[in-house]
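2 proteins. here.
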Amino acid sequence: MLKTAVDKAFLPAKSLFEQVGDVMILTGRTMMSAVRPPYPYGGEFVGQFMFALQLCWFPMMISTLAFGFGAPGLQAANFLSLFGALDRLGGFFILASVREFAPFVTAVVVAGVAGTAITADLGARKIREELDALQVLGVDPIKNLVVPRFLALMLITGLMDIYALIFGIVGGLGAELLYNEPLGGFFATLFNNASITDLWGSVLKTTLFGAIIAVVCSYKGMTASGGAEGVGRAVNEAVVIAFLGVFAFNYVFTQTLLATNPDLSVVK
C-alpha cells in the first residue's frame, strides 16, 4: 500500500522526466536525419515554409507594432520624459525590442499559429495510424515529416525576427512622434547602442526558438492518443511546453551572451 502511494505521488515527476528524455531523443534523431543523406523532403520543406509564412506574417506585424508602440514605446517614453531624456528611447529599444520583445513575440506567434498546426497535423496522422503505415512501408516519419517542419520553423523564426525588429522599431518611432520629439535623437542613441552582437544574438536565439517549438510540437503530435479530444489536448500541451522551453532557453542564452560580452550591459 505504501509503495502504491509513493508511486502515485512521484508519477507526475516520472512522466515529466520520461517526456523530457523522449524530446531529447527526438531532437537528436531529427538533427541526425537532417544532415544524413538522402534528402527527400525538399518539397515538404518548401510547403511548410510557405504555410508558416502565410499564417504568421500578419499576426507578427500587428503584434510587433502593438508591442513596440505600447510597452517599450509609450511606457518607456513616459518614464524618460520625466527626466527630459526622451532622446534615449532609441537606446532603450536595443535592450527591450532587439534583445527581448522581438524574439519573444516571434516565438509566441510561431508557436501559437504554426506550432499548433504542426501538432494538429501530426496528431491527426497518428490517430489515423498513418505514421504506423509509413513505418510498415519503410518510410521514416522523422526524416519525411519532422525534419522539413524542423528546418522550416527554424528558418521562418529567424526571418520573422528581422521582420519583428523592423516593425517594433516603427512602433517606437510612433511613440516618439506622439510626444512631438524629433527622430534624430532616437536614431542616434539606437545606432550608438546597437552592435553586430545584438543583431546576430537576436536572430540566432530566435532561430533556436523555432527548433524548440518544432521539436516539442512534433513530439506532442506524434504521441497523441484518444481521438479528436486527444489531438486537442496535445495541441494545448504543445503550446504550453513550447513556451516554457523558450522562456528557459532565453534566460540561459541571454545570460551567457551578456557574460561573454560585458559591453552589451552598458547603455550609452
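next one coming up
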Amino acid sequence: MARRYGVQATAAETKAKSSRMNLVEANVPPYKIPPLLKNKHGLDIVNAVDYCRHERPRRLGMIADAMYGPLPPRPDTLAFRTISEQRDALGGLATRREIVIRCGHRGHERDLLLLLYLPNGATRPAPTFFGLNFKGNASCSTDPGVNATVTKRYPSYGTARYEDNRVTEANRGLTAGRWNFEKALARGYASATLCYYDLYPDRPDGFNDSIWKLFISEEEWETEDSPYGAISAWAWGVSRALDCLETQPEVDASRLVVHGLSRLGKVALWAGANDERIAMTVSVCSGCCGAKLSRRQFGENFEWVDHWNPHWHGANFRRYVNRESELPFDQHTLLSLIAPRLLLITSATEDVYADPIGEFISAREASAVYQLFNSPGLGADTPPPDTLVGQDIGYFLRTGQHACTPADWDAMLDFADAKLKAI
C-alpha cells in the first residue's frame, strides 16, 4: 500500500517543495508548448473531420495515461429515485427536487444524492448548470428543506487538509454564496449539485468508500503502477449526474453546463473533454493540472500537487514531477478537446498559485483547434480585470482571490445568455 498511504511529509519537506514554486513573473523561463495542429507524425492537421477521427481520441488517451488516469465505464445499472420535492422552494422561485442516483456494478452499489432546483417561471425545458460541491448539498443553500444527513464521517488522516468538512445542520448554507442558486433561477436556468465525497472522499485512504470499489480491487488501486485517480472518479460522477438530469422533463438536455472551482474546475475540464453532452464547460481558478500551462513554471507545479494529493492522479503522473517540459502535451491540449463546444475560463487577479496569465494563454492557444470548426475560439486579447471577453471560448479575470463569487456567476450567466441560449 505504499503508493497511496505513504508516510506523511515533514514540515521541512513541505517547506522545501513550497520554496521551489516560482511566484515571480520575471523568473518564468523560456518555454515552448506542443503545437495543436500537428498530428503524431508531425504532419499538419487541416480539417475537423481528420482531427475528430484520429487526433482527438489519441489526445484523450494520452492525457488519461499521463495525468488523470482512465474514467471508469458506465455502470451496469443506473436507477433514479426522487426522495423529496417542494414546489415552492426559495420563496416560490423554484421547485426543489432531491434524487438518489443508484449505481450498480459487479454486484456492488453506490448511491449519489443530487440536489436540483428548477425555475418555476420556465415555459419550456431549462438550460441547466451542474457542479460538484465540496461540503455537502446542504452547504450550498440556506433552504431548510435540503437534506443535511451524512451517514458516515471520516476521521482525521493526520493533517487538517484531509479533515471531513461537510456541513452539519448547525452550519447549513455555509457556501451558499458560492452557488447563487437564486441568481441562476431568476435568469431562467435550473441548477444542480452533488457532493464529491459521494464519489471519492478527498483523502489518500478514500478507496474503500468510493465508486472505484465498484470497478477495481484495492490491490489494483494501491499498486505502484496503478493508473487510477480520484479526478477521474469525480469526472465519472459528473456524467452520472447528467444521466439523471436527462431524465427530468423540465431540463433541456441539449443545454447542460458543467462548472467547478479549484480541483473541481480540473474535474469540470476533464469531464468536458470526455462527455460531449456537455454544451458548456466552466473552469473557475482551476490552476495546475487544470487550465494553466504547466511549462510556464509559475504558481503551483506538479511536485506541489502530488505532495498534497497523491490520490488525484494515476501513477504515470509522478514521472513528470519536476519534468513538466517532458509531458507530451500541455493544458491547452485539454482545453482544445472541448472544441467546438462552449468553454469559459475564469481566473482571479490575486490567485497566483493558479497563474491567471497561464490560464489565459492556455485558452488563447486552444483556439487553434476551435478554428478547425470555423470558430474563432477565444478571439480576444488579455482583458482588464472584471471584463468578460471571448467568442466560443470565454475568459474572465475577476479582481480578488481564489474563490467562486457572485461576480464569477455573473460572468457564467452572461456567457451562457450570449452563447448557450442562442443554441
